[in-house]
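Section 5.1 Outputs to date
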Amino acid sequence: MEITPHPLVYQLRFARSEFMRCLEGVSPEDAVKRVMPMNCISWTVGHLASQEHYLWVMWAQGQNLAPGLVDLVGYGKPASTPPLADMLDAWQLITGAADRYLETLTSEILITYLKRGDRTASENVGTWLQRNIYHYWFHIGEMHAAREMLGHQNLPEFVGDFGKAAYSA
């Protein structure tokens, strides 16, 4: 029996696509410029990759595909300006691996808690998934603001092709 991804997985994929749309036209040079007090755009790419790595690759699958990423772009770590290409490569590697787990999610799994060794996650899988989705939207807004402050023109004005993420029960 084939499992259809849970509607929240489609929402995450849509948030990811909007995140990538926000990056369209960003040069490698602008990606590493900091508009204080914000982090740079390339940091944000790595930061969101780091969250997905933590949740869906390390906790859910027990793999560490990006050693050192959290030290470079993790919450509470010193500011950094990593190259955009490196962060996009990490993001693509991690989201591809994350999708292998996310494809398996059902409503029943969303209310369970992941375990890692002798530790149990502090939130259930569904709450983590929602947190991940909202984290993308937070940083999409932040990146738009940084791009405006960097003088970028013709930025997206509203959520894109929402039909790709239309709600279904």
